[in-house]
Amino acid sequence: MTSPRPEGANRMDPGKPLILVTGATGYIGGRLVPRLLAAGRRIRCLARNPERLAGRPWPGVELVKGDVSDPTSLEAALQGVSQVYYLVHAMAEDSPDFRGRDLRQALTFAAACAKAGVRRIIYLGGLGDPARHRSDHLASRQEVGAALGSSGVPVLEFRAAVIVGSGSVSFEMIRHLTERLPIMITPRWVNTRCQPIGVRDVLGYLTEALEHPEVEGVFEIGGQDVLDYRRMMLGYAGIRGLRRLILPMRVPLPILSALWVDMVTPIPLELVKPLIEGMTTEVVVRDPRALEVFRVRPMAYRDALVLALQRLDEDAVETTWATSLSREQEEQVLGSHEGMFLERHHRHVKAPPRAVFQAFCALGGENGWPAGNWLWQARGFLDRAVGGLGMRRGRRHPRDLRVGDPVDFWRVEALEPERLLRLRSEMRLDGRAWLQFTVRVEGDGSRLEQTAFFEPHGLLGLLYWYSVLPFHLFVFPGMIRALKRRAEAAMTQSGPGA
């Protein structure tokens, strides 16, 4: 099923080869698409939830609803496609059969590509000597690469180790561990050698691949430096002017390391476990052919860190590790409120809709929540205690939002400039919850409406709603009052002619 094309899609030159990108809601895919557009490529994106891409500034990109494991949806998605990027991996899913699922998906996708006459598959896999793998996830990455070539379609496979970039899961883990712990007693995996690569260089290889349509096979890519993880953390500390002491010791079970990282950093356990497992395997480039075939000249580790920190300082992070991390939920339109509990508040605000919209779009993340922030933090802690993500995901950007962005334990489900923001809860709940803000012109200012929706599932859902009602009496009225003050204060500071 094809979603409506964004404005401008029909202006694309139909004579250009059509490129399909899978995994466009993810960290790498979300950064690759705009670079392909800048290079003049004609792009189609396959996503299970295309609405999560609706807010991206990607003029002319065609969005198609589908799944790499569904041959029917792939038949439509691959129609007329010349080359495809396969950027799908189940790293964030904690399942005993993730390896088998990844393999089956790759085989299904490969067969569909062969049937559709696709000329080549471009895949980003994992670095490492297959004879020395200690990680199921690293092994799975290379098994997927082999499976993609099983139907006879040529495959260009790039294999990378740790990717260093603003918002990447590896960078964020190193950043938070180093920032928060002056003394680290670490497992011996910190002495494992790794060849990190900057995200700009990875994107450079992926983008340039289209200029070499005849190239296939496995290419190992890495940055200039081969370092162990201890030196990587100390390198970050040096740039930040931090003095850190790292003491390696024997930790009998990798899960103990994963649980500690889960506690200290925002990265959830389901992502930490495969990362820690992968850090026990040496991942360095053994075959430098990529430097002979492609123009990319990878930067040093320090330079990649400086660029990542610069993007954070500038609030210019394109995608984060949390961008694609979401529990699959049914499609829901809040047109009917039958069976739902609602809590609605409204205020007249002496400010135009633009100022009000900017105020509620700045909620969450490091900005916090303007009423009962400690209660929001406590609710996030409880969510983490039962296996949820809690508040750890934060925000991609302190002010800007787009559909699909995480906001603490919420996800932006709908966004209409200067009119509406709807957040869908991704907490572990016996039910489904939304928080919606709308604004419209009213008299000499605006009318702000704030509505909390909750659809309980069974008796536990009802008990949950009534148990949190006392807190709602404080949190929700306080939040709309704070938004009113912020919007009016912003207008006062900018002046009447702003």
Alpha-carbon Rg, integer = 24 Å
Count of individual helical segments: 14
Percent range of helical residues = 25-40%
Neighbour order of strands in the largest sheet = 3-2-1-4-5-6-11
- How would the global form be characterised? globular
Q: Supply the number of structural domains.
A: 2
Helix and strand content put the structural class at alpha/beta
CATH fold naming of the largest domain: Rossmann fold
> Roughly how many Å apart are the termini?
45 Å
* CATH class bucket of the largest domain: Alpha Beta
Mean residue pLDDT: 87
Assess the beta-strand content as a share of residues: 15-25%
Keywords: Membrane, Transmembrane, Transmembrane helix
Pfam families: DUF2867, NAD_binding_10
Transmembrane segments: 463-483
Domain NAD(P)-binding: 23-129
Question: What's the SSE blueprint?
Answer:
Blueprint: E1 18-22, H1 29-38, E2 42-47, E3 62-65, H2 71-77, E4 81-86, H3 98-116, E5 120-126, H4 136-148, E6 155-160, E7 163-164, H5 169-180, E8 183-187, E9 193-194, E10 197-198, H6 199-208, E11 217-220, E12 227-228, H7 229-240, E13 245-249, H8 254-264, H9 269-278, H10 290-293, H11 301-313, E14 341-349, H12 353-360, H13 373-385, E15 406-407, E16 410-416, E17 420-425, E18 431-442, E19 445-456, H14 458-494
Parallel strand pairs: 1-2, 1-4, 2-3, 4-5, 5-6, 6-11, 7-10, 8-13
Antiparallel strand pairs: 9-12, 14-19, 15-16, 16-17, 17-18, 18-19
Domain NAD(P)-binding: 23-129
Protein name: NAD(P)-dependent oxidoreductase
Transmembrane segments: 463-483
